[in-house]
Structure formats: C-alpha cells, structure tokens
Design a protein that fits this description.
By secondary structure, this protein is of the alpha/beta class. The protein has four domains: 94 residues, PAS domain (Beta-Lactamase, 2-Layer Sandwich), CATH 3.30.450; 108 residues, PAS domain (Beta-Lactamase, 2-Layer Sandwich), CATH 3.30.450; 148 residues, Alpha-Beta Plaits, CATH 3.30.70.270; 245 residues, Alpha-Beta Barrel (TIM Barrel), CATH 3.20.20. 43% of the residues lie in helices and 22% in strands. The strands form four sheets. It has an eight-stranded mixed beta barrel, surrounded by four helices. Strands 2-1-5-4-3 form a five-stranded antiparallel sheet. The longest helix is centred in the N-terminal third of the chain and has 23 residues. The radius of gyration is 49 Å and the shape is elongated. The C terminus is likely disordered.
C-alpha cells in the first residue's frame, strides 16, 4: 500500500494539472508542483498558507461547475470538491487554449469585417444534401438580415432572368469537370436596387472524382461595373448626338460580316452644313445637328445609325437588298429635305448626299466602308442631294482624282502651272480694258487636263488654297513687271478660299510689298460661291474693296434671287452669265433680262461685262441694250500671260468661232 501511495504522489507531482488539499478554512495541507508553479510559491513554503489569498477568486466551497479565473496573464479553470472533512482543488491552466480560441475568433471577426469592407461574401454548397450556406456578409449584400433562411430557389428568383441560364450552364460545366469557375451576374434586391456580383468558385471532389461540395465567393462589383459601362458608352457613343460613333459602327459591321451576313451600308453627308455653323454659330449648328440626328433615327427604328464625325452618318442594314437599301436611303433624304429650319434662323433647306454599298460574306468592314465612301463622293461630284450605289468605276474615278491631285502638287512645286489672259473689251471701240486670268496645267504629262478636269478636283481639297495664292502672287508679279496702269488683271477666287480668314491679309500684304496700285487688281467671285459662303464673301469683299481692289460677281443671274445678293455684297461690278448672252440676238426673254441687269448695275454704280460673246451680231445686240464691255472668243482668245505683258495694246482680232465657250475656256482659275 505504501508503494502504491508513493506511485500516486509521484504521478501527481509530474502532472500538468494542479492539485491541492485544504482544510475547511482554505489553508493548504498539500499541493503538487504544478499548483506551486501556478501560485508562484515553492511547494514546501505553500503549506499552511491560505489558498484563497494566494489565488483570489477560487471557490471556498464545493461547486458543480468549474470557475474560470484570470489572474494576470493566465487563464485558469478551478474545480472544488469535498474530500472527507477537507476540500480538494483541481486547477487547470487553459491560457494556451484560450489564446487559440481568441485568435480564431479575431480572425473570424477580421474576415467578416474584411468581407463587409470589400463587399465580398462566401457561400458553400453541399451537393449531396443540396443545401447552400451563405455568409452573413453575403446575405446582407443580397439585402437580407444575417441568419435569414435563404435557399438557391430564392437566390434564382432574385438573379436577373437574362443571367440565370448563364449561371446554370457554368455550374453544370464545373460539376462535370471539377474545375474552378467564375461568372458575373445582376441581381435585383428586395429593396428594388440592382446590384452586380462577380463570383469565383471551385468544386471539391472525393477520391472517386464525384463532386461533394462547391464553395466560392461573391464580390459586389456594381460600382466598377457602372464605371466600365460608362467608359464603354463613352468609347462608342457620339457625345453631341448620343448616337453610336464610328467605332461602334465598325464593330457592328464586323460582327455582321463575321457571321457571314449580307446587307448594305449607307454613308450620308449633310450638304453644306458648314454654312449653318458659319452663319449662325456652332451653338445653333450643334442644336440642328442633334435635331437632324434624332429625325434620322426616328425613320430607322431599331436599325443602327452612327455619326462618323462632322456632318457624316452611316447606317448598317443587315439582310437588306439593294432595292430595300435604296428605299431607306431615299426615305432619309426626304427626312432631311423636309426638316423644318425656318424657326431656327438657318438656310431654308438642308440636303444630304448618300453613298450605298452592298456587303456579303468574305468582305471586310474596311472595304465596305471604303466603297460606300466612294459612292458618297460620286453623289457629291454629281451635284449633291442624291443617292449613289457603289460601282467598280467609282474606284477608277478615285484613282484618277488622286492622280490629278498629285500632278497639281508637282506642277505647283515644279513650275507646271501657267496663266492665260482673256481680254475684256470695250464694245464700242475695241479697246482692251483688262484681262481675266485663266489657269492652265502645262506639266508635259499625258493625258492633257483642262481646267474642267483639274479645278473641281482641287476645289474639293485644300490644295485649291495653294493654287489660288499662286495665281494671285503670279498676277501681282506680272503687274510689277509691267507698271503701265492700263494693264489690269482679274483673278478668280474659289469658294474654299473665301473661307480662308487669312486670304484678305495675304492679298493686301502682297500688293503693299510690291507697290502695286490696288485698283489694277480685281477679284472675281462666282455668284454660287458667294451665296454658299455669304458671310465670308462679304467679309473678304469689304476688306479688299476698302483698300481699293475691284470685286466682281461672276456668272451673275445664274442663281436664284441674284438681285437680292446685290444688297449684301460690297462689289464693284458684275459679269452677266453667258446663258443670257449666247442667244441675245434672237431671244426676247434674254434681251429683257440683260436690259434689266444693265439698268440695275447702272443704278447701283456697278460695271457690267457680258460673257460668251462669240459673234459680231451679239456685239451689236449688246450695245443696243447698253452693255459697254464684253468678253468672249469673238473679242479675243486667251493668250499666255507673258504675251499679255509684253504685247502692245492691240484691237480685237475679230475672230469668229463656231465653238461655243465651254467649261474649259469659261472656267475660273
């Protein structure tokens, strides 16, 4: 027995749990080393001391449960039980366990806080039981209180119906492959707010490869999704009209072609829309552009119309035949032509030119758009306000146009341009009063290009600005070379040059530095160009006339409301359009009109020159109507500028020509 008792004492001394025996008053009768370590007192010195004093908070009577004490940094669980007339205490140090529990709790709390701050929650799906467990954070993100009973059926009802099939397909695929998965979906919360969630998950399988559970996260990406959608919208939407832009159009066209689709593309350009901006300012121009865009869109329904930039639009017509597409184009042309502009204070009518190109499998969007552009260019070249269907010869026309521009550029740089002077003659005496300078291309290349071949091409590009300045500079240089004040030149100004705000200053600087009297130089502006760019024409004419230059309105009578324009343009003379002159001897109507023009010109103090004088009989008829000055083949053919400068004044050659002045000889410089 003594031996067993010795073993028991040894075991108790080596135990990690503290044991002690006290009398009824709590004085220690015995304790093991583990308890001495807890008390911080050697075992031999602990006997006879009060345990409640050494370990405050210990129960002083037996209790059915353990008491938890926290003396200092330690956590202790204490149990008191009766041992005969004495008390036995069992003290367990649970500090390490409590630290681990606290750490786990803190980590869980940190995770919960992180999920809440990051708008992210977790879920787990027990596949065998078909139960889904949602984290409290995720429930709150879904709009429910923590702990709410929330099954997959309820979740499915809240998901956007367009997104639910995608989720089901993704989960089915993941269950079959056991792979990770991700999807993004919209959800309508109970409070009516739509949120966007990005979900990541993985499938856990057993040793046989059978899926047992799936778990994942859901991240609220509503804000970033809205930012992304806005960036996409900005990247593919025209900011002025709200229509899709060029990028959106090319993407839609490429998608149609990638699916072997066929149909047609329309490219529309508002004719002379720049006049609205020039006459009424960009604020009004922007307003009109928005209204026109809305009018076009209303005629198209759900078909895509995009603004390509400036005053250009494009329409994709999937599956449309050539006849159908032409009908749509005509409908849009009518919508623009019938658009009410009177109340806005802009020109009474805007028209639209349209290019139409078909597309089909094997085409690229670049080719389709280029073909439609070529057809549009053909519409403009043919007079605007029309629909043109792309044909292969349009490409050849473009190649020719580019070739013409290249030749003109080379001629400007290498001396391949020349000026010819066509005399303006006093009909009663045959005296040459001045010359209109006409431009010729003499670059030695074939084929020969007359003014009617190269000037319209130049006028549709910025090259005409350089051409007009070359003509004017060359004319002034010739006036310097021959200082005789009787030598006077008229040079023609294109409509594009009227829009150049620096051209007036350029003319005055050239005249001033050359020392040429301004009255020796006249500028001719066609009536059509002046009306099209009225404000610009008035500005330039006022600037140059105030300095002493002559300003002539060319082709007078060719436009509607010609006499009205005389009120606004500060000109010094007019040229009577040749259409009124070519039959002057036989047409009473022409005679009446010319007579009226002459009377108005005289009343306003303007000079009047008759064009297309081809026969002696015309001269006599014009003189009877009061016309003093004429111009035409009968009075003198164009001759090189060098000959004009060097020649002495000669009477008219009296040459008659069966050839009526055409586009080439009547063309402006």
């Amino acid at each position: 027995m003594t031996r067993v008792t010795s073993y028991c004492r040894t075991v108790l001394d080596r135990a990690d749990v503290g044991y002690a025996v006290t009398d009824a008053r709590g004085n220690l009768l015995w304790c093991n080393r583990a308890l001495g370590a807890v008390l911080g007192v050697p075992v031999e010195q602990a006997y006879g001391r009060s345990l409640p004093a050494l370990l405050p908070g210990v129960p002083e009577a037996p209790a059915p449960t353990r008491e938890v004490l926290a003396p200092g940094p330690k956590w202790l669980e204490v149990r008191c039980s009766r041992l005969g007339d004495d008390l036995m205490y069992e003290v367990v140090d649970v500090s390490a366990w409590r630290d681990r529990e606290l750490t786990v709790t803190q980590e869980a709390d940190a995770l919960r806080r992180a999920q809440a701050l990051g708008r992210m929650g977790t879920w787990e799906w027990s596949i065998s039981e078909d139960q889904v467990t949602w984290s409290d954070t995720l429930l709150e993100m879904f709009g429910f209180a923590p702990g709410t009973a929330f099954d997959f059926e309820l979740y499915s009802r809240l998901v956007h119906p367009d997104d639910l099939p995608m989720i089901e397909e993704t989960l089915d695929a993941a269950l079959k492959t056991g792979s990770v998965f991700t999807y993004t979906h919209r959800m309508l919360r109970p409070d009516g707010k739509e949120r966007v969630f990005e979900c990541f998950g993985e499938v856990v399988v057993d040793d046989d490869g059978t899926p047992v559970r799936a778990l994942g996260t859901a991240h609220d990406v509503t804000q970033s999704s809205r930012v992304h959608d806005e960036l996409v919208r900005m990247a593919e939407q025209d900011p002025l009209t709200g229509l899709p832009n060029r990028r959106a159009l090319t993407r839609a066209l490429e998608q149609e072609l990638a699916n072997n689709g066929s149909g047609a593309l329309l490219v529309l350009d508002l004719d002379n829309f720049k006049d609205v901006n020039d006459l009424r300012g960009h604020a009004v121009g922007d307003r009109v552009m928005r209204m026109l865009a809305s009018a076009l869109q209303s005629r198209l329904g759900d078909r895509l119309i995009a603004r390509l930039g400036g005053d250009e639009f494009a329409v994709v017509l999937p599956g449309a035949s050539l006849e159908d597409a032409s009908g749509v184009a005509d409908n849009l042309k009518e919508a623009v032509a019938g658009f009410p502009l009177a109340g806005i204070g802009t020109p009474a009518r805007i028209t639209v030119s349209t290019g139409l190109a078909e597309f089909g499998p094997g085409d690229s969007w670049e080719l389709v758009l280029a073909n439609a552009d070529l057809a549009l260019y053909a519409s403009k070249a043919a007079g605007r306000d029309r629909v043109t269907v792309y044909e292969p010869n349009h490409y050849a026309d473009t190649v020719k146009r580019v070739s013409v521009l290249d030749r003109l550029r080379s001629a400007l740089a290498g001396g391949g341009l020349a000026l010819y002077g066509m005399p303006m003659v006093e009909l009663s005496t045959g005296t040459t009063l001045g010359h209109e300078l006409l431009l010729r291309l003499e670059d030695g290349q074939e084929p020969y290009l007359g003014p009617a071949d190269f000037l319209p091409v130049a006028e549709r590009s910025n090259l005409i600005l350089e051409v007009d300045r070359w003509v004017l500079s060359t004319a002034i240089d010739a006036l310097v070379e021959e200082p005789d004040s009787r030598l006077r030149f008229n040079v023609n100004v294109s409509g594009r040059t009227l829009e150049d705000p620096d051209f007036g200053g350029f003319v005055l600087d050239k005249l001033g530095s050359a020392g040429v009297a301004p009255g020796r130089l006249g500028l001719e502006i066609t009536e059509t160009a002046a009306v099209t760019n009225l404000d610009a024409a008035v500005t330039l004419a006022t600037q140059l006339r105030s300095f002493g230059c002559r300003i002539t309105l060319d082709d007078f009578g060719s436009g509607f409301g010609s006499f009205v324009h005389l009120k606004h343009l500060p000109i010094t003379g007019i040229k009577i359009d040749g259409e009124f002159v070519k039959g002057i001897e036989t047409s009473d109507a022409d005679a009446v009109l010319v007579s009226g023009i002459v009377q108005i010109a005289n009343g306003l103090g303007l000079s009047a020159v008759a064009e297309w004088v081809e026969r002696p009989s015309q001269v006599e008829a014009l003189k009877k109507l009061g016309v003093r000055v004429g111009q035409g083949f009968h009075l003198g053919r164009p001759v090189p500028l060098r000959d004009v400068v060097n020649a002495e004044r000669m009477p008219p050659n009296g040459a008659l020509s069966s050839r009526v002045v055409g586009a080439e000889d009547g063309a402006r410089s």
